Amino acid sequence: MRCGGRIVSFSIMLLAxxxxxxxxxxxxxxxxxxxxxxxxxxxxxxxxxxxRSVGGLVDDLAAYQRQKQRIxxxxxxxxxxxxxxxxxxxxxxxxxxxxxxxxxNRFGPExxxxxxxxxxxxxxxxxxxxxxxxxxxxxxxSLLDPVVTERGLVGRVAQVSAxxxxxxxxxxxxxxxxxxxQTTRDDGVVIGQLAGDxxxxxxxxxxxVSEGDLVLTSGLGQTLPADLVVGQVLSASLAETELYQxxxxxxxxxxxxxxxxxxxxxxxxxDLTIFQAQEGAGAP
Amino acid sequence: MIRxxxxxIVLVAAILDASVMPELRIGGGAPDLVFLVVVSxxxxxxxxxxxxWAVFGGAIQDALSLxxxxxxALGLVVVAFIADALLxxxxxxxxxxxxxxxxxxxxxxxxxxxxxxxxxGHIVPLGEGLLAVTLPTAIYHVLLSLxxxxxxxxxxxxxxxxxxxxx
Lengths: 284, 167
Fold this sequence. Notes:
- The complex is a heterodimer.
- In chain A, 36% of the residues lie in helices and 26% in strands.
- Chain A is an alpha+beta fold.
- Chain A has a single domain (29-267), classed as Rod shape-determining protein MreC, domain 2 (Thrombin, subunit H, Beta Barrel).
- Chain A has a six-stranded antiparallel β-barrel. A six-stranded antiparallel beta barrel of chain A has the order 6-7-8-11-10-9.
- Chain B is mainly alpha-helical.
- Chain B has helices at residues 2-19, 33-44, 47-63, 71-87, 97-119, 126-159.
- The longest helix of chain B is centred in the last third of the chain and has 34 residues, at 126-159.
- Chains A and B meet through α1, α2 and β1 of A and α1, α3, α4, α5 and α6 of B.
Protein backbone atom coordinates (compact mmCIF):
# COMPACT_ATOMS: atom_id res chain seq x y z
CA MET A 1 0.00 0.00 0.00
CA ARG A 2 2.76 2.35 1.06
CA CYS A 3 4.74 1.37 -2.03
CA GLY A 4 1.70 2.01 -4.23
CA GLY A 5 1.32 5.48 -2.68
CA ARG A 6 4.91 6.27 -3.51
CA ILE A 7 4.52 5.19 -7.11
CA VAL A 8 1.43 7.38 -7.45
CA SER A 9 3.33 10.29 -5.83
CA PHE A 10 6.29 9.68 -8.13
CA SER A 11 4.06 9.67 -11.21
CA ILE A 12 2.35 12.90 -10.17
CA MET A 13 5.63 14.68 -9.38
CA LEU A 14 7.26 13.44 -12.58
CA LEU A 15 4.28 14.68 -14.57
CA ALA A 16 4.45 18.03 -12.75
CA UNK A 17 8.15 18.36 -13.62
CA UNK A 18 7.51 17.47 -17.27
CA UNK A 19 4.62 19.94 -17.51
CA UNK A 20 6.77 22.68 -15.97
CA UNK A 21 9.51 21.99 -18.53
CA UNK A 22 7.00 22.05 -21.41
CA UNK A 23 5.41 25.32 -20.27
CA UNK A 24 8.80 26.86 -19.54
CA UNK A 25 10.24 25.99 -22.97
CA UNK A 26 7.08 27.23 -24.70
CA UNK A 27 7.38 30.52 -22.80
CA UNK A 28 4.04 30.17 -21.05
CA UNK A 29 5.70 30.47 -17.62
CA UNK A 30 7.47 33.74 -18.51
CA UNK A 31 5.10 36.14 -16.72
CA UNK A 32 4.92 33.89 -13.64
CA UNK A 33 8.72 33.58 -13.53
CA UNK A 34 9.02 37.37 -13.75
CA UNK A 35 6.75 37.76 -10.72
CA UNK A 36 8.41 35.00 -8.68
CA UNK A 37 11.93 36.25 -9.30
CA UNK A 38 11.25 39.75 -7.92
CA UNK A 39 11.20 38.72 -4.20
CA UNK A 40 13.83 36.03 -4.83
CA UNK A 41 16.20 38.61 -6.33
CA UNK A 42 15.71 40.75 -3.26
CA UNK A 43 16.67 37.88 -0.94
CA UNK A 44 19.58 36.96 -3.19
CA UNK A 45 20.89 40.51 -3.02
CA UNK A 46 20.89 40.29 0.79
CA UNK A 47 22.47 36.82 0.88
CA UNK A 48 24.93 37.42 -1.95
CA UNK A 49 27.00 40.23 -0.48
CA UNK A 50 28.03 38.45 2.77
CA UNK A 51 28.81 35.38 0.68
CA ARG A 52 31.21 37.35 -1.45
CA SER A 53 32.72 38.92 1.69
CA VAL A 54 33.30 35.48 3.21
CA GLY A 55 34.88 34.36 -0.05
CA GLY A 56 37.23 37.37 0.10
CA LEU A 57 38.16 36.62 3.73
CA VAL A 58 39.08 33.05 2.92
CA ASP A 59 41.30 34.33 0.11
CA ASP A 60 43.10 36.72 2.46
CA LEU A 61 43.76 34.02 5.04
CA ALA A 62 45.74 31.95 2.63
CA ALA A 63 49.23 33.49 2.56
CA TYR A 64 50.20 32.32 -0.88
CA GLN A 65 47.06 33.88 -2.22
CA ARG A 66 48.53 37.34 -1.61
CA GLN A 67 51.14 36.78 -4.25
CA LYS A 68 48.52 35.47 -6.57
CA GLN A 69 46.47 38.55 -5.88
CA ARG A 70 49.40 40.75 -6.84
CA ILE A 71 49.71 38.93 -10.14
CA UNK A 72 45.96 39.21 -10.65
CA UNK A 73 46.15 42.96 -10.05
CA UNK A 74 48.90 43.34 -12.60
CA UNK A 75 46.98 41.21 -15.07
CA UNK A 76 43.93 43.33 -14.43
CA UNK A 77 45.82 46.53 -15.11
CA UNK A 78 47.30 45.00 -18.24
CA UNK A 79 43.86 43.90 -19.40
CA UNK A 80 42.47 47.39 -18.87
CA UNK A 81 45.32 48.91 -20.88
CA UNK A 82 44.86 46.30 -23.57
CA UNK A 83 41.19 47.11 -23.78
CA UNK A 84 42.00 50.82 -23.98
CA UNK A 85 44.65 50.17 -26.58
CA UNK A 86 42.17 48.17 -28.61
CA UNK A 87 39.68 51.00 -28.47
CA UNK A 88 42.32 53.55 -29.45
CA UNK A 89 43.40 51.42 -32.39
CA UNK A 90 39.80 51.11 -33.45
CA UNK A 91 39.35 54.86 -33.16
CA UNK A 92 42.48 55.43 -35.25
CA UNK A 93 41.23 53.11 -37.94
CA UNK A 94 37.78 54.66 -37.72
CA UNK A 95 39.38 58.06 -38.23
CA UNK A 96 41.06 56.88 -41.43
CA UNK A 97 37.86 55.40 -42.72
CA UNK A 98 35.83 58.46 -41.70
CA UNK A 99 38.14 60.67 -43.63
CA UNK A 100 37.12 58.76 -46.73
CA UNK A 101 33.41 58.88 -46.11
CA UNK A 102 31.15 61.86 -46.03
CA UNK A 103 27.90 60.44 -44.75
CA UNK A 104 29.39 58.19 -42.14
CA ASN A 105 26.84 57.27 -39.49
CA ARG A 106 27.23 54.46 -37.01
CA PHE A 107 26.58 53.49 -33.41
CA GLY A 108 29.97 54.26 -31.83
CA PRO A 109 31.28 54.00 -28.28
CA GLU A 110 30.48 57.66 -27.66
CA UNK A 111 26.79 56.88 -28.25
CA UNK A 112 26.64 54.10 -25.65
CA UNK A 113 24.37 54.55 -22.64
CA UNK A 114 25.05 52.19 -19.75
CA UNK A 115 23.25 51.14 -16.59
CA UNK A 116 25.55 49.89 -13.83
CA UNK A 117 24.34 46.77 -12.00
CA UNK A 118 25.47 44.50 -9.16
CA UNK A 119 25.88 40.79 -9.75
CA UNK A 120 23.53 39.13 -7.26
CA UNK A 121 23.82 35.49 -8.26
CA UNK A 122 25.22 32.92 -10.62
CA UNK A 123 23.77 29.90 -12.37
CA UNK A 124 23.44 27.06 -9.88
CA UNK A 125 24.35 24.43 -12.44
CA UNK A 126 27.68 24.44 -14.21
CA UNK A 127 26.01 23.45 -17.48
CA UNK A 128 24.62 26.94 -18.07
CA UNK A 129 26.96 29.89 -17.60
CA UNK A 130 24.80 32.75 -16.39
CA UNK A 131 24.68 35.67 -13.98
CA UNK A 132 21.85 37.41 -12.21
CA UNK A 133 21.96 41.19 -11.96
CA UNK A 134 19.87 43.61 -9.94
CA UNK A 135 18.73 45.70 -12.91
CA UNK A 136 15.55 44.99 -14.78
CA UNK A 137 12.94 46.58 -16.97
CA UNK A 138 12.49 49.41 -14.47
CA UNK A 139 16.12 50.41 -15.12
CA UNK A 140 15.70 50.31 -18.88
CA UNK A 141 17.18 46.85 -19.37
CA SER A 142 15.61 44.80 -22.14
CA LEU A 143 16.08 41.39 -23.69
CA LEU A 144 19.33 40.84 -25.65
CA ASP A 145 21.01 44.01 -24.32
CA PRO A 146 24.82 43.61 -24.33
CA VAL A 147 26.48 43.37 -20.90
CA VAL A 148 30.05 44.62 -20.52
CA THR A 149 32.76 45.61 -18.06
CA GLU A 150 35.77 47.86 -18.59
CA ARG A 151 37.58 44.71 -19.77
CA GLY A 152 35.12 43.91 -22.52
CA LEU A 153 32.02 41.93 -23.39
CA VAL A 154 30.45 39.76 -20.67
CA GLY A 155 27.34 38.45 -22.41
CA ARG A 156 23.78 39.36 -23.24
CA VAL A 157 20.55 39.68 -21.30
CA ALA A 158 18.59 36.45 -21.76
CA GLN A 159 15.71 36.96 -19.33
CA VAL A 160 14.44 40.13 -17.73
CA SER A 161 11.96 40.87 -14.95
CA ALA A 162 10.94 44.18 -13.41
CA UNK A 163 13.84 44.29 -10.96
CA UNK A 164 16.40 41.80 -12.23
CA UNK A 165 17.81 40.05 -15.26
CA UNK A 166 19.60 36.87 -16.25
CA UNK A 167 22.72 37.29 -18.36
CA UNK A 168 23.92 34.50 -20.64
CA UNK A 169 27.70 34.66 -20.41
CA UNK A 170 30.00 34.71 -23.41
CA UNK A 171 31.50 31.45 -22.11
CA UNK A 172 28.21 29.53 -22.28
CA UNK A 173 28.13 26.80 -24.96
CA UNK A 174 24.95 28.39 -26.37
CA UNK A 175 26.62 31.79 -26.83
CA UNK A 176 27.53 32.85 -30.39
CA UNK A 177 29.12 36.23 -31.13
CA UNK A 178 30.14 37.56 -34.53
CA UNK A 179 33.70 38.74 -34.06
CA UNK A 180 36.67 40.14 -35.92
CA UNK A 181 40.43 39.93 -35.47
CA GLN A 182 41.61 43.46 -34.88
CA THR A 183 44.84 43.35 -36.85
CA THR A 184 43.85 41.32 -39.92
CA ARG A 185 40.11 42.28 -39.94
CA ASP A 186 39.18 38.64 -40.55
CA ASP A 187 35.74 37.64 -39.33
CA GLY A 188 34.66 34.61 -37.33
CA VAL A 189 32.23 33.47 -34.69
CA VAL A 190 33.21 33.25 -31.01
CA ILE A 191 31.58 30.23 -29.37
CA GLY A 192 31.56 29.56 -25.63
CA GLN A 193 32.88 26.31 -24.21
CA LEU A 194 31.75 24.41 -21.13
CA ALA A 195 35.22 24.63 -19.59
CA GLY A 196 35.02 28.43 -19.77
CA ASP A 197 37.28 28.93 -22.80
CA UNK A 198 36.22 30.65 -25.97
CA UNK A 199 36.77 29.36 -29.49
CA UNK A 200 36.76 31.69 -32.48
CA UNK A 201 35.61 29.55 -35.36
CA UNK A 202 35.06 30.00 -39.11
CA UNK A 203 38.17 32.17 -39.59
CA UNK A 204 39.28 32.23 -43.22
CA UNK A 205 41.91 29.63 -43.97
CA UNK A 206 44.14 32.34 -45.49
CA UNK A 207 44.03 34.60 -42.43
CA UNK A 208 47.29 35.13 -40.54
CA VAL A 209 46.18 34.59 -36.96
CA SER A 210 48.81 35.46 -34.36
CA GLU A 211 48.97 34.85 -30.65
CA GLY A 212 47.98 37.99 -28.78
CA ASP A 213 45.69 39.37 -31.49
CA LEU A 214 42.70 41.11 -30.01
CA VAL A 215 39.24 39.88 -30.90
CA LEU A 216 36.43 42.45 -31.13
CA THR A 217 32.76 42.20 -31.93
CA SER A 218 32.27 42.73 -35.65
CA GLY A 219 28.75 44.11 -35.54
CA LEU A 220 27.76 41.73 -38.34
CA GLY A 221 24.14 40.72 -38.05
CA GLN A 222 23.62 43.81 -35.90
CA THR A 223 22.95 41.70 -32.82
CA LEU A 224 25.77 43.44 -30.91
CA PRO A 225 27.50 46.77 -31.47
CA ALA A 226 30.88 46.64 -33.20
CA ASP A 227 34.25 47.01 -31.46
CA LEU A 228 33.48 45.61 -28.02
CA VAL A 229 36.51 43.69 -26.74
CA VAL A 230 35.84 39.93 -26.68
CA GLY A 231 39.31 38.60 -25.80
CA GLN A 232 42.77 37.77 -26.98
CA VAL A 233 43.99 34.95 -29.21
CA LEU A 234 45.97 32.26 -27.37
CA SER A 235 46.57 29.88 -30.26
CA ALA A 236 45.19 28.98 -33.67
CA SER A 237 44.83 25.78 -35.62
CA LEU A 238 43.02 24.30 -38.60
CA ALA A 239 39.52 23.03 -37.90
CA GLU A 240 38.89 19.27 -38.18
CA THR A 241 37.24 19.77 -41.56
CA GLU A 242 40.29 21.82 -42.71
CA LEU A 243 37.91 24.31 -44.33
CA TYR A 244 38.58 27.13 -41.86
CA GLN A 245 40.74 28.04 -38.88
CA UNK A 246 39.87 28.03 -35.21
CA UNK A 247 41.49 30.13 -32.52
CA UNK A 248 41.45 29.66 -28.76
CA UNK A 249 40.51 33.01 -27.24
CA UNK A 250 40.96 34.11 -23.64
CA UNK A 251 38.43 36.62 -22.43
CA UNK A 252 39.93 39.51 -20.49
CA UNK A 253 36.92 39.25 -18.15
CA UNK A 254 37.13 36.89 -15.15
CA UNK A 255 33.57 35.56 -15.25
CA UNK A 256 33.86 33.92 -11.81
CA UNK A 257 34.80 37.12 -10.02
CA UNK A 258 32.40 39.61 -11.57
CA UNK A 259 30.72 41.87 -9.03
CA UNK A 260 29.64 44.85 -11.09
CA UNK A 261 28.67 44.97 -14.76
CA UNK A 262 27.23 47.52 -17.14
CA UNK A 263 24.28 46.95 -19.44
CA UNK A 264 24.25 48.83 -22.73
CA UNK A 265 20.64 49.96 -22.78
CA UNK A 266 20.36 52.03 -25.94
CA UNK A 267 21.55 49.52 -28.52
CA UNK A 268 18.73 48.42 -30.77
CA UNK A 269 19.43 45.23 -32.73
CA UNK A 270 18.27 45.37 -36.34
CA ASP A 271 15.28 43.12 -36.84
CA LEU A 272 16.22 40.76 -39.67
CA THR A 273 13.30 38.38 -39.17
CA ILE A 274 11.40 40.06 -42.03
CA PHE A 275 14.03 38.72 -44.47
CA GLN A 276 13.79 35.23 -42.99
CA ALA A 277 10.00 35.38 -43.39
CA GLN A 278 10.42 36.42 -47.02
CA GLU A 279 12.86 33.55 -47.64
CA GLY A 280 10.37 31.14 -46.06
CA ALA A 281 7.63 32.42 -48.33
CA GLY A 282 9.87 31.96 -51.36
CA ALA A 283 10.16 35.64 -52.17
CA PRO A 284 12.82 36.50 -54.77
CA MET B 1 2.77 18.89 8.29
CA ILE B 2 6.44 17.91 7.93
CA ARG B 3 5.86 17.91 4.19
CA UNK B 4 5.26 21.66 4.27
CA UNK B 5 7.92 22.52 6.86
CA UNK B 6 10.48 21.34 4.33
CA UNK B 7 9.39 23.83 1.66
CA UNK B 8 10.98 26.94 3.24
CA ILE B 9 14.11 24.87 3.91
CA VAL B 10 14.51 23.96 0.24
CA LEU B 11 13.65 27.55 -0.70
CA VAL B 12 16.59 28.78 1.37
CA ALA B 13 18.75 25.99 -0.06
CA ALA B 14 17.83 27.05 -3.62
CA ILE B 15 18.71 30.69 -2.91
CA LEU B 16 22.04 29.64 -1.38
CA ASP B 17 22.69 27.47 -4.44
CA ALA B 18 22.35 30.53 -6.66
CA SER B 19 24.32 32.95 -4.49
CA VAL B 20 26.80 31.30 -2.12
CA MET B 21 27.58 27.88 -3.61
CA PRO B 22 28.98 29.20 -6.93
CA GLU B 23 31.76 30.83 -4.86
CA LEU B 24 32.94 27.28 -4.05
CA ARG B 25 33.00 26.20 -7.69
CA ILE B 26 35.83 23.88 -8.71
CA GLY B 27 35.97 23.38 -12.45
CA GLY B 28 32.30 23.62 -13.32
CA GLY B 29 31.04 21.86 -10.20
CA ALA B 30 29.66 23.24 -6.95
CA PRO B 31 27.62 21.69 -4.14
CA ASP B 32 23.87 21.59 -4.70
CA LEU B 33 22.13 21.97 -1.34
CA VAL B 34 18.65 21.25 -2.70
CA PHE B 35 19.91 17.93 -4.04
CA LEU B 36 21.63 17.05 -0.74
CA VAL B 37 18.57 17.89 1.36
CA VAL B 38 16.07 16.14 -0.93
CA VAL B 39 18.11 12.93 -1.25
CA SER B 40 18.88 12.85 2.49
CA UNK B 41 15.18 13.13 3.29
CA UNK B 42 14.30 10.45 0.75
CA UNK B 43 16.74 8.10 2.50
CA UNK B 44 15.70 9.00 6.03
CA UNK B 45 11.96 9.43 5.80
CA UNK B 46 9.01 9.53 3.45
CA UNK B 47 10.07 9.77 -0.18
CA UNK B 48 6.74 11.44 -1.00
CA UNK B 49 7.81 14.49 1.04
CA UNK B 50 11.20 14.44 -0.67
CA UNK B 51 9.60 14.35 -4.12
CA UNK B 52 7.38 17.33 -3.29
CA TRP B 53 10.43 19.23 -2.05
CA ALA B 54 12.24 18.19 -5.23
CA VAL B 55 9.60 19.78 -7.47
CA PHE B 56 9.38 22.95 -5.38
CA GLY B 57 13.12 23.39 -4.76
CA GLY B 58 13.99 22.45 -8.33
CA ALA B 59 11.50 24.94 -9.76
CA ILE B 60 12.88 27.78 -7.58
CA GLN B 61 16.44 26.83 -8.51
CA ASP B 62 15.54 26.95 -12.20
CA ALA B 63 13.70 30.26 -11.84
CA LEU B 64 16.98 31.68 -10.54
CA SER B 65 18.98 30.48 -13.53
CA LEU B 66 18.57 30.08 -17.27
CA UNK B 67 17.64 26.39 -17.15
CA UNK B 68 14.01 25.69 -18.12
CA UNK B 69 11.78 25.54 -15.03
CA UNK B 70 11.26 21.91 -14.05
CA UNK B 71 14.62 20.69 -15.40
CA UNK B 72 16.19 20.31 -11.95
CA ALA B 73 12.94 18.92 -10.52
CA LEU B 74 12.89 16.13 -13.12
CA GLY B 75 16.26 14.68 -12.07
CA LEU B 76 15.63 15.26 -8.35
CA VAL B 77 12.29 13.43 -8.38
CA VAL B 78 13.81 10.45 -10.18
CA VAL B 79 16.81 10.25 -7.80
CA ALA B 80 14.59 10.57 -4.69
CA PHE B 81 12.26 7.83 -5.91
CA ILE B 82 15.01 5.40 -6.93
CA ALA B 83 16.98 5.96 -3.70
CA ASP B 84 13.89 5.18 -1.67
CA ALA B 85 12.83 2.23 -3.82
CA LEU B 86 16.26 0.59 -3.69
CA LEU B 87 17.24 1.24 -0.09
CA UNK B 88 14.07 2.09 1.83
CA UNK B 89 14.63 3.94 5.10
CA UNK B 90 18.30 4.32 6.07
CA UNK B 91 19.41 4.95 9.65
CA UNK B 92 20.99 8.29 10.49
CA UNK B 93 24.17 6.55 11.63
CA UNK B 94 24.69 4.76 8.32
CA UNK B 95 28.07 5.72 6.83
CA UNK B 96 27.93 3.73 3.60
CA UNK B 97 24.72 4.45 1.73
CA UNK B 98 24.56 8.28 1.84
CA UNK B 99 27.90 8.85 0.02
CA UNK B 100 27.10 6.09 -2.47
CA UNK B 101 23.63 7.42 -3.24
CA UNK B 102 24.79 11.06 -3.41
CA UNK B 103 27.62 10.18 -5.81
CA UNK B 104 25.59 7.97 -8.15
CA UNK B 105 22.53 10.20 -7.77
CA UNK B 106 24.49 13.25 -8.96
CA UNK B 107 25.20 11.50 -12.27
CA UNK B 108 21.54 10.59 -12.73
CA UNK B 109 20.41 14.09 -11.71
CA UNK B 110 22.76 15.74 -14.18
CA UNK B 111 21.69 13.40 -16.97
CA UNK B 112 18.11 14.55 -16.37
CA UNK B 113 19.27 18.18 -16.46
CA UNK B 114 21.18 17.63 -19.70
CA UNK B 115 18.13 16.06 -21.36
CA UNK B 116 15.94 19.01 -20.32
CA UNK B 117 18.57 21.48 -21.52
CA UNK B 118 18.77 19.69 -24.86
CA UNK B 119 15.00 20.01 -25.24
CA UNK B 120 15.46 23.75 -24.69
CA GLY B 121 18.08 23.90 -27.46
CA HIS B 122 20.95 24.26 -25.00
CA ILE B 123 23.23 21.52 -26.26
CA VAL B 124 26.03 20.58 -23.87
CA PRO B 125 28.58 17.94 -25.01
CA LEU B 126 27.84 14.90 -22.84
CA GLY B 127 31.41 13.74 -22.17
CA GLU B 128 32.72 17.23 -21.47
CA GLY B 129 29.71 18.00 -19.29
CA LEU B 130 30.12 14.88 -17.19
CA LEU B 131 33.84 15.47 -16.76
CA ALA B 132 33.84 19.21 -16.16
CA VAL B 133 30.64 19.61 -14.15
CA THR B 134 29.28 16.28 -12.91
CA LEU B 135 32.54 14.81 -11.60
CA PRO B 136 33.51 17.75 -9.32
CA THR B 137 29.88 18.11 -8.20
CA ALA B 138 29.70 14.40 -7.35
CA ILE B 139 32.95 14.64 -5.35
CA TYR B 140 31.54 17.61 -3.43
CA HIS B 141 28.31 15.70 -2.77
CA VAL B 142 30.15 12.60 -1.54
CA LEU B 143 32.27 14.73 0.80
CA LEU B 144 29.27 16.66 2.15
CA SER B 145 26.88 13.71 2.20
CA LEU B 146 27.51 12.52 5.75
CA UNK B 147 27.38 16.02 7.22
CA UNK B 148 24.12 16.96 5.50
CA UNK B 149 22.66 13.50 6.13
CA UNK B 150 23.37 13.86 9.85
CA UNK B 151 21.90 17.37 9.99
CA UNK B 152 18.78 16.33 8.10
CA UNK B 153 18.62 13.27 10.37
CA UNK B 154 18.66 15.48 13.45
CA UNK B 155 15.89 17.61 11.95
CA UNK B 156 13.94 14.44 11.18
CA UNK B 157 14.29 13.18 14.76
CA UNK B 158 13.25 16.55 16.10
CA UNK B 159 10.22 16.79 13.84
CA UNK B 160 9.07 13.20 14.32
CA UNK B 161 9.51 12.23 17.97
CA UNK B 162 9.12 8.50 18.61
CA UNK B 163 5.89 7.28 20.07
CA UNK B 164 6.30 5.68 23.48
CA UNK B 165 3.83 3.43 25.22
CA UNK B 166 3.24 2.66 28.87
CA UNK B 167 3.26 -0.98 29.88
